[in-house]
Amino acid sequence: MSDFWILLTGSLVAACCGIVGVFLVLRKMAMIGDAISHSVMPGIVIAFLMSGSRDSLLMMFAALVFGVFTTFLIGMFERGGIQSDASIGVVFTALFAIGVILVSLFARQVHLDQDAILYGEIAFVHWNLWEIGGVSMGPKAVWLLGFTLFVIVAVIGLLYKQFKLCSFDPALAAAIGIPVAFFHYLLMGLVSMATVSSFESVGAILVVGMLIVPASTAYLLTDRLGMMIVLSVAVGIASTFLGYGASVWLDASIAGCMVCAAGVLFIIAFLFSPKHGLVSRKLRQRSLAAAANG
Amino acid sequence: MSEAAKHLRQEQGPAPLSVSGLSVAYQKKPVLKGVTFDVNEGELIGVIGPNGAGKSTMMKAALGLIPSIGGEVLVYGRPVKAQRKLIGYVPQRESVDWDFPTNALDVVLMGTYGRLGWFGRPGAKEKAQALECLEKVGMADFADRQISQLSGGQQQRVFLARALAQNAKLYFMDEPFAGVDAATEKAIITLLQELKKQGKTVIVVHHDLATVQQYFDSVLLLNVELQAYGPTAETFTQEKLQRTYGGRLAFLDHSLIQGGSGQSCDRGDRTC
């Protein structure tokens, strides 16, 4: 049964991260995903200290606040004339450092494991069950991720055209009256939600891999946005299964193997994608050259 | 308001665009200072000025895309925010990432988003309309083409088709002629003429001084401040251009500019 829950959790992480990851990649904000995944730390610790439990909606809310706050700070520094990559670096390391201090100060009271925060503990996901009146409803992580996935699918599904236009041409979006800043922060809120729900399973560092790698792989495989989202989720789920298989075989970190598998799939797409792959591009050039010379 | 603009102001109904005292500053440095003008309905207006004169900035500020430090912009007598459905916008081609995973038809469909409301989706009606717009710019055969596979001129025509799909009354176009091939230039000018025939008003940021007289009914000369505005024949003169461009006009072929007599001058005809 543990295999099932681990694979289901991993697939839900892949789906949540895969969908919002597409928009991060297209808006050239991959490193914002990195920043958010780190700077939600203090939010999680504060919520943890306040509620004393690790799976409350309060935690989700606190992470959401810190995630949006992060992007707000980054934007503010950028407008103030700081280079974009520098302001990302300043904001997320500073917020993450606050989280590190909080954990080191209060870790004993709150049983928050630094390793778990950084690397996740998907292997233990089926031990932390949600019980109603003594009846087990399954792992809490699955419920949390399921809820997040529902919110992400509902919001992006309903407002798909706004997210699309804000990603492709924010100037036109603003000109026709779409509140571009609102959609920016809405997306950042969804990224924060995806990050904090995936946190427990894959950790703060590897969640960036699930946000960016499958979406980047999908980018190489299709020319349509809708298809890119589907492929991003599919590649993420494939990485989950391949990675879990590899981790059992190697007896190694599950989350590590999952992101590694995603990396391998990315390399394969980078080399062999029919349209954008390195190999197919070289072959096309060669046949064009042959046609031109022959 | 300049004398010419005052002279031009029509009595019938509010102007499609009325800008007064529009000022923009980037980090304390003014890039646009007290620009005031009214636009006549059904005209093609060229916005001319040297690099860094604030032409694009003026367009963006008028549309409310960037904050202005002063001034008022009215579209058909009401604030621009309330009139977005009447406005079509063609941003500079370089302002978007053409590697975005989408095709030409889909980009044109984006022009219909403004009237679909929050949750509406483009349907068969919008698709048919988008195809029609692609046809008007001679791009119907490229509807399914990934946008990065299009040439620069074709991309520009897709942008124009998208503006057509907005079905606006007042159009802002930011350098639609920049870096396009001859076929596209022709397609654009045909389209502008057609829009004019339909009574629409089009404001175009333009770089090529050689074609100004041929393309535009009015010109607006801008260099941070408004230098001159009025009918092309009266405004596009040696003296006013000199004032707008300062010393930088030296490289210009003087024969391209008429002396304000109002007679039309064939482009490239050096004896004119």
UniProtKB/TrEMBL annotation, chain A:
BP-aspect Gene Ontology terms: response to zinc ion; transmembrane transport
Keywords tagged on the record: Cell membrane, Membrane, Transmembrane, Transmembrane helix, Transport
Annotated Pfam families: ABC-3
Membrane topology: Multi-pass membrane protein
Membrane-crossing residue ranges in chain numbering: 6-26, 33-51, 57-76, 88-107, 141-160, 172-196, 202-221, 228-246, 252-272
CC terms in the record's Gene Ontology section: ATP-binding cassette (ABC) transporter complex
Source superkingdom: Bacteria
InterPro entries reported for this sequence: ABC_BtuC-like, ABC_TroCD
Keyword rRNA-binding: no
Compartments where located: Cell membrane
Record carries keyword Transmembrane helix: yes
Family stated for the protein in its record: Belongs to the ABC-3 integral membrane protein family.
Protein's name according to its UniProt entry: Metal ABC transporter permease
UniProtKB/TrEMBL annotation, chain B:
Residue runs in coiled coils: none
Domain ABC transporter: 17-249
InterPro entries named among the record's database cross-references: AAA+_ATPase (IPR003593), ABC_transporter-like_ATP-bd (IPR003439), ABC_transporter-like_CS (IPR017871), Metal_Ion_Import_ABC (IPR050153), P-loop_NTPase (IPR027417)
Endpoints of the signal sequence: none
Superkingdom: Bacteria
The entry's keywords: ATP-binding, Nucleotide-binding, Transport
Entry's Gene Ontology molecular function annotations: ATP binding; ATP hydrolysis activity
Matches recorded under PANTHER family: IRON TRANSPORT SYSTEM ATP-BINDING PROTEIN HI_0361-RELATED, METAL TRANSPORT SYSTEM ATP-BINDING PROTEIN TM_0124-RELATED
Family: Belongs to the ABC transporter superfamily.
Protein known as: Metal ABC transporter ATP-binding protein
Species the sequence originates in: Paenibacillus soyae
